[in-house]
Amino acid sequence: MRLFYALALTLLAAFPARAEVNIQQVTSPGGLTAWLVEEHSIPFVALDVRFRGGASLDAPGKRGAINLMTGLLEEGAGDMDARAFAREAEGLASSFRFNVGDDSLSVSTRFLVENQDASVALLKQALQNPRFDPEAIERVRGQVLSGIRSSAKDPNDIARKTMDGLLYGEHPYATSLSGTEESVAALTRDDLIAAHAAVLAQDRIYIGAVGDITPEALGLLLDELLGDLPETGAPMPPRATVTVPSGITVVDFPTPQSVALFAQKGISQKDDDFFAATVLNQVLGGGSFESRLMDEVREKRGLTYGVYSYLAPMDLAETYQGSVSSANDRIGEAISVIQDEWSKMAGQGVTEQELDDAKTYITGSYPLRFDGNQTIAGILVGMQMLDLPIDYIPTRNEKVEAVTLDDVKRVAGELLDPEGLAFVVVGQPEGVETTATK
Asked: Residue 176 and residue 148: Cα distance in Å, rounded?
């Protein structure tokens, strides 16, 4: 679920294999702000609207309400039931997607310019006048409950839920945004109406648009689409207090292969050292076959098919996490190797060759992310939510190239915490026992 924050770190996409994007800031007559990339070669528009807060705004005792509400936004609106709404969207050749995460609810849409007015009117109905019909509620509730039951049998999901509970305590991040069987079963239509009002408000909107539309036309469109939403929603949750129970927590689960997650405190993307931390992570466990963890755990010892680490800065907490899977009789050795590599990196930093290779990969792969208008719109929103400057794209790689060997060594010593590294192991690991302490 939270891996999507790794995507927020990469930012942007538009035209194949090049990072040239002319972004304009647009302010609607009603005061809504958006970032726009005009692209008039194809007659369609991609729009991404994001509401900060997301599932973290669930009311106490109502966990899963915002997730269930989001699933119902295209299940009927205004005078259209779910089937009629779907037929209307299909007839307009319009695409609507509604997704919710821990920190935001996102609305992504694409529509033809010739159908713009009708498409915007249809989306407006979904956002402002969802029906929440009883039969639709029960149908989507059933889908959510099925997912919850399936998750309870998945070692990866069990590990994630256990780790989140250990890290985030009483904060909403500590529990699944889907809720529990009990909480979802108890949700009423009134709870969904309250969840809708909590999230879909003007004081938390971020907007990105790409395509065949002018700034003036976009401003009018946004006021029509969003101008009637409530001015304010529910208060944002406080920052999470991250508590890392150093050591190992074992969750017994009958499976021949154990899943292990590992985590420690992380770094904010607004920190001046974030790019140095990004380079550090690329060398340590950034998912490449050239990373130290992959080399030591997979290539040299054959303990796993894959091991990786990632920086996970969320709106209200920062962690540094990773994952590995191995046979029950070998997971203990994999954990030991990861701990050793964490310690080596903390004490020694990286080599000049590792630094150069990591920067080459990070800067070289960046333009490949510019692969479609819908992707651009979403990443424009991500940039705004991270409070990045509008000229971030052409300067991003310069910041990566400016990272020095001394920067990475210093950040490795300050960020990496071998003694504070927590592991959650789900399976029946041989020779591995719970040692974690708060």
From this structure: 9
